[in-house]
Structures are given as structure tokens and as C-alpha cells.
Hints:
This protein has helices at 2-10, 15-46, 64-72, 78-96, 104-120, 125-131, 169-176, 219-226, 243-249, 290-298, 335-351, 367-378, 382-390, 396-408, 415-426, 432-452, 482-490, 519-533, 580-594, and strands at residues 99-102, 138-142, 180-185, 197-198, 202-203, 205-206, 209-213, 232-237, 252-255, 279-284, 317-320, 357-358, 457-462, 494-501, 507-514, 544-545, 550-551, 555-562, 568-574. By secondary structure, the chain is of the alpha+beta class.
Amino acid sequence: MSYYLAKFLKNVKSPRKLAISILMYFYRFFTGFLTDQLFGVVNEFYKKSSALPPVQNPLLLDSALGIAAKIRKRQVSCTSVVRAYIQRIDEVNPVVNAVVEQRSSEALHEAALVDQMLASDHRTEEELEREVPLLGVPLSVKEAICVQGMLFTTGVVSRRGIRAKEDADVICNLKKAGAIPVAMTNTSEQCFWMETYNNLYGRTNNPYDTRKTAGGSSGGEGALLASAGSVIGVGNDIGGSIRMPSFFNGVFGHKPSRGIVPNRGHFPPTEPALQPYIGTGPMCRYATDLKTMLRVMAGPNDNLLQLDKEVSLKNLKMFYMESDGDGNFTLPVAPGVKQALQKVVAHFRKICDVPPQRVHIRGLKHGFKVWAHAVTAKVADVASVEARVFGDGASITKIWKEFVFSLLGWSDYTFPVVATVLVERFLAPKTKSVAEPFLKIQRQLEKDFQNLLQDDCVFIMPTMPEPAAYHYANTLRAQNCGYVAVFNILGLPATSCPVELDGCGMPVGVQVVGGLRNDHLNLAVAREIEREFGGWRRAQICLYVAVFNILVLIATSYPVKVDGCGIPVGVQVLGGLRNDHLNLAVTREIEREFGGWVCSGPIVE
Length: 605
């Protein structure tokens, strides 16, 4: 709460600013601290997180490149790999609800064809790696992207049962490279929201705490990858829809530079004027797979990048911000998120000739407004947005009715979709002059980053200010998307990288931003972050008691010594569920080193 008071007092310089500060104080206090407490009480008292089944098949822990290499070398069969992932999806989907349709029989058939081909193919391993680098690797795809014969509804009730008649361009490229689609994953309705739920397939859960959001709109991809139900996936991103769920689920997600990866074959169809803002990109459990995925997805456009250029981390210049610059609307950066960023900065300070430099880019605090005004300015007709959601000729009465019904859970439409239509109709700028101040900030941001991100330069900041929140707690926090959405408008490559788990066991990480078409720098930094900090971690569900978040994992208290007043002091070590043996081993070592129990007696001066 002290943060909100400090922000309030900082802006008290005039009556007008005083009034604005009061409003912002209560808005941020309500959407931040108070909302977290309210949702925390409800979830801690009445809900319990569900644990994922443990990963038992070691094939599920290989990277995509590792799987492809084993298949090329005939060390494992493609069929066994695909079957392992199909079985894993069957295990985890009842917990996370990430998959809306499996492609099991087709995938197994294609895997058998790969095994037959390898039995008679005379190409060398090097030739196979060059021609089909993802040979036999299972692939998951966001359901908003066409895979021939598979569901293609984007969670819209009126599109129930609609199937794709052809593959999207990126899917064609991935199939040519040998990847085998095995599942379609859940998305928010029409990809309109930062949480993944809709009235066709329900809500996707975060595997680290199923009471919390998986993010959106590619939340199904993020949750499935984090659950070891997939190793590589395809998402799309017009306002952070790859990077947000990657951050919330502790995997890697890359939004490519503008104009590199083809976007044909998506729903909703993107207006031509918005094409520069949308990025179809890879989501991977392992950073080592990002480069190959990006190269394959880009097709012939990969020659516009420098993916084979060697990156010297020693010569890298890194700039960073610990927040968006303290915007009035965005929430403060959580301690765990800030700590993750500081650890990354500290690591690169050791290996870079030029220490990372903290900068302050003023326009970033307006990121959400810049994104909203830029997108709205490109939308040709508000009526087309309404028609896409409600059909032609929808009256304002119907829209308001659906708004009320969506709040009560009676509508076929989710609340974020209806709210978006109303915002477009009533709050979107009606003239260019209204949007011009933010378009001016956009132009200044473009100049700032162009000057900042020369060759061998990257910029890092939090992907989002907070880790995954409880389901629906983000309803009034759309402004936090400004952290990621602003880079869609700027067209810059941006990569979400997991660093560690915070004190509540939730993933936290950083966002790496490079100069235009300098995606290779992002990917090199992502690989180094994975190497140093471990990358993806298996979800270990933590249980809590009431609002005090008292851990009830298997816990043992250990005496270490007595303090200056003769009172015993010690430590508590927490192990994973049913990992009591680890606790006991640590007990014995602490007793050996520090003596364990100390005889009680009077203090001797």
C-alpha cells in the first residue's frame, strides 16, 4: 500500500493533478492490492490447486532439436515420440484444459510414414537435418490458426464445428520441415483477451497453480508447453498474446520482427492496415528450439534475418528498465518480477565488456494507450468489429443486453468481447486529433528505440508487472498489457524468457527486445538466460492455508544454534509433495555441521 501512497504524493503539484492523483490512487489500489486480497481470500478458503501428473517418459523432456536428432539417428521411433505426447496430453488436459481437439490418429499415421521413410532413405543425417530439421517432432497449434481438417472456431459459439479447409502458411512451412501437428489449443474468444476462456471450450488453467490464469490469448499453448504436453507450438500476437502466456507459464515465446512470418490463415482475419502489428511466432519449452522454429516459420523470409550470425555476448550492449516508467494506470512491478530482472542484469554485468545500462524511456509508461490508439486508428469501421462479433445489423440494444447477460454468465459471448465492442463504439477516438497525442508518443518511441538499439544492442524489461493472477482478477487490468503491446506497434522483435519461480511458485521472467530484424540477438540472449537460470521448470503445485499463504508442503523445522539470549534459532526446509527423503537428508547434514539440539541452560557471561 505504501507504493500507492508514494505515487499519490508524488503527483500532488496542482489542484488538477491532485484530483487526478486521487482518482489514480483509488483505481490502482482497487485493481491492484485490494483485488489481489479479495481474490486471494476466495481462492485460499474455497478452492484448491490441482497437481499435474509427474513426467514419467524421458522423451517428454527432450528439446525439439534433441527429438529430431534421435529420430534421424534411428535411436527412437517417431511413432514412440508421438504416442508419448498423445498420452501426456491425455494425462494433463483434465487438469489444465489446454487442448480443444487432438489429432491423434492422423499424427500416428504420419509418424509411421516417417519411420517407414527412414527405414529406406539413404540421405545422411546432415542432409536430413538441413532439409527436414523438425522431422517427427510433435507440434501444438493455437486453434485460431488453420490446420487442415481441424477445428477453427477461436472459441466463438456461432462458429461451433467449423473446420479449417487448408493449412495456414506457417503450418505448411512447419509440415515441410517434418513437424507433426498433434493438438489444437484453447484461446480467448476471438483472441480478444489476456485470459484464455470462452463459452465453447471453457477456461484454461495455469499448471503451476490451477486457480490462476494461463494468460491469453495463446494461453492454451502456454499451459500445454509448461505441462510437458508439447515441446513446440505456434501462437500469434497483436497485443502480447504470445509473450503474456509464455511469461505466466514459464516458457519461451518470440514475437518476430514486423513482416517476417506470414500471417495468412488466421481467425479473426486481420485487417490489412493491422498486418504490421500482428506477429505469428514460436512458443517453445526450450530456448534452443526458437531459432529453428523461427527459420522454418519465416519460410523464404528467413534470409531477411541474420539467424546464422554469431553473437558475441561479450560485445553485447544491454539496456534495461525495471518497470514501464511508473505509468499511472499500470500496476507496480511485483518484487519477484523485479528480482528476476535484477538477476539477469547482474549476470550480464559479469560477461559483457560494457556493463548493462539503466535507461528511462518516457513514452513506455503510455504503452497501453499508444497501442489502443494506434490499433483503433487503423480499424476502418467500428461497425465491422460489431458485425464480426454479433453479426450484421446488431442493434445497440442487443449489445447492451449481451453485456448484462455476459456479466451474469447467461450470454454466448464472454464479457471481454462484449466490453471491447462497447469500448470501440463509445470510447474510441472519433477524430485523428483525439488520437494524435498518442500517435506523437508512438513516433517518439520509434525514434528512441531506433537510436538505442543499434547492432549488438538489446533492451530488457519485465514481460508483465505481475506473475499470473487468480482467474478473472485481470478483468480491470487490461492496461498492464502495455508492457508487451507497445512492441507490436513498434514492430520490434520481443522475446519472453523465464528466469525462475517466485516465492509462491509462479514463473517470473524478462522480456528481451531487439532492433528491427535483429531477432538473432534476442534468441542468443534467451539461450544464455536458459543456460544460466535453467529455463523451464516442472510445475510444483504449492498449497496454501487461508489468506496468510502459510505453506503446508511437507516441512521440517531444524535447530541451528541459540541466539544471543539463549533462545534456539533455526531454519525450515520445504520439499516437494512426498519428497520427505530430501528433507531428512538435509536434516542430517545440518545436525552434522551445526550440532543440532543444544542443551538448555542459563546464559553465561
